[in-house]
Amino acid sequence: MTPSRDISRLIEIMAALRTPVTGCPWDLEQDFATIAPYTIEEAYEVADAITRGDFDDLREELGDLLLQVVYHARMAEEQNAFAFGDVVEAITRKLIRRHPHVFADKDGNIQPAGVKSAWERIKAEEKAERAARRPPEETAHTSLLASVKAGLPALTRAMQLQRKASTVGFDWNDPRAVLAKIREEADEIEAALDSKDKEELASETGDLMFAVVNLARHVDADPETALRATNAKFERRFAYIEKALAAKGRSLDDASLEEMDALWNEAKATTTAVVPAKAGTHTT
């Protein structure tokens, strides 16, 4: 089998990988749940390539993301749910429907100011149609938070859930109150550490993270952007440690925690004036 610019070749390759006995053992073991994390990861890789302006990487990452769509479609076809063609048909139908000013058969011209309102009206119609197809028990109660998409990254979804709740006054009025909540959640984690209950610790950690997102919202900071910046800062400072040790002919394995922490503080001092942290704290 040879590479091709035709989407049908990618679909054929995916089918071959998922063919029992002759296919790839790893691919055959996967299901929707195990592949979903890779789908999210590839979407982030696309965004990263765009941020860096690297079109070679963008081409590759878009291919990886397309593979995720083909992968899910293949698994759905194996269950007689739908196939890749159905995915394409669904999105083309949606685009045509949402752009009557472009694809209308006649008299479909809409002024720019009316495009957004038409888009929102059609989206609302589609949402109502989807709701009508659901069992009655699923539509008996519509939550204020129902419009926040479940598939969003956790940090982004936490921010949007909080914003939606704040529209009806369910919110703090002062960032310091949120900070107090963060301290409260940290205390609860400390108490959970004594019990060594992993599920409780995970739950309390999630509560702390949710509270931190709330603080970010109150100080007008996007949590995803803020965390990305801190990740980059951590990488720069850790690279400083590696380079400083390498200059002495040493490696990370040779260094003690105290030595690495001292170099970490040196890295911090190159950009900001800070009070040296205690060994082992690794503050950012």
TrEMBL record:
Tell me the enzyme class: hydrolase
UniProt lists the family membership as follows: Belongs to the nucleoside triphosphate pyrophosphohydrolase family.
- Species this chain originates from: Bradyrhizobium ivorense
Q: Which PANTHER family does its entry note?
A: NUCLEOSIDE TRIPHOSPHATE PYROPHOSPHOHYDROLASE
Q: Which UniProt keywords apply?
A: Hydrolase
Q: Which residues form the signal peptide?
A: none
InterPro entries per UniProt? MazG-like_dom, NTP-PPase_MazG-like_C, NTP-PPase_MazG-like_N, NTP_PyrPHydrolase_MazG
Q: Name one GO molecular function term.
A: ATP diphosphatase activity
Its name, as the record gives it, is Nucleoside triphosphate pyrophosphohydrolase
**Classification of source organism:** Bacteria, Pseudomonadati, Pseudomonadota, Alphaproteobacteria, Hyphomicrobiales
Catalytic activity annotated for this protein?
ATP + H2O = AMP + diphosphate + H(+)
Q: Which Pfam families match?
A: MazG
As recorded in UniProt, its EC number(s) are 3.6.1.8
Q: Where is the NTP pyrophosphohydrolase MazG-like domain?
A: 30-103, 175-237
GO terms, biological process: dATP catabolic process; dGTP catabolic process; dTTP catabolic process; dUTP catabolic process; response to stress; TTP catabolic process; UTP catabolic process
